[in-house]
Amino acid sequence: MTGDRTPVALTRTESDTTASVDRAVEEALDLLGDPLRDVGKGDRVVIKPNMFQRKPGFRTSPELLLAVAKRASARGAEVFVAERTHVLKEILDGSPLHRYAQVVSFDDRPLRVVQVPGATSLRVPVAMPDLVTDCDFFIGAPQLRTHSSVVLTNAMKNLVGLFPGFTTRIVHMAGVEESIVDLNLLRPQHLVVCDAITVIEGNYPMAGSTRAVGLVAASRNAVALDVTMAAVAGVETWELAYLRDAHRRGLGPGDLRDIEVRGASVAEVAFKLDRAPVDLTPPREGIHIHADTACEDCRRWLAAALHLLRDELLRHPGELTIVSGPMERLPEPRGAVVLVGNAMYEHREAGVYLEGCPPRAIQTAGLRHAMGHSVTDQERTQFRVPSHDGPDTEGLPWPAPEELI
Questions:
Q1: What digits encode the pLDDT tens for the residues 126-144?
Q2: Alpha carbon separation from 330 to 289, 324, 350, 351 (Å, rounded)
């Protein structure tokens, strides 16, 4: 370590095989000077991956989890690999990981009601799984991904998945950017081992695609790791509001100059991540968008939704008015009306209302509903229609938790 700079390790892996990933993880941990040295016999260690989707490649590498778990287990710790849905149990069924760790879903654990210290968004008590609140050593194992609303998701945003099941909705209701920082105050990560072996790019979480990159990164500080991986992926730190906020609140360095990168340099492994679209230009005449006063997250969400639904919008025979951002009076409605974001709450009776700052990917179903397309009963629970415009959602089945992103 040079001066008071925070160390981050970058290592390459030649392939996604167990042996190659294991070597890359070993090298990264060595570069950090044995970050598991504080783990003792009988300690409860929790490893939190990104592993709530069944789509191949859209998850933390099981080989990376194996490499981390077996090293924690070797210290005599009781190791858990835990995520918010049962999907990780399916993915890891038959994995040698079970020799070193218990694979559990947060959905099956008892909950503790806790107050987030110093919270700015999650200011009310929240329910957290006991493993999250009670563990002795907490390890994040995120997969590097682009994100249509917050630009990039990695170590810090991985903690949104601490909420069990569909309760991740709370984060969007309170405001995603500051809630991410609040969760990192509640459950600091003692170590982060980042999977950039395969990354997700493009219009994620509405769509997205996999890309082989072949990197492993590690740090004892989640903010430092995210600043470094943003630089690796061609994203400026100032573009990531949650990183700026985390630095202001003293969680870690906000500038690459305050980080000591060990192993490979940023320049040696840098690549350009294909980002989500940000263009708010309507795809055709008759689609009216009013979002000048919307926050950046809601504007980005709307741009991603327009891209996702472009073909449907082009085929839609009628007009459509989409409004987002605070305003005293709505613009003249033309055709069906969709209201995007928490700022539209007072106008919620004027059209299909998508709450959240920003809404979640699944809420694009509200735009499809406004165009007259059929949506499932489960999707219908994810948006509000005017009280005079149809049945309420009481009694409708909720989507599977892994779909609620």
A1: 999 999 999 999 999 999 9
A2: 12, 10, 9, 11
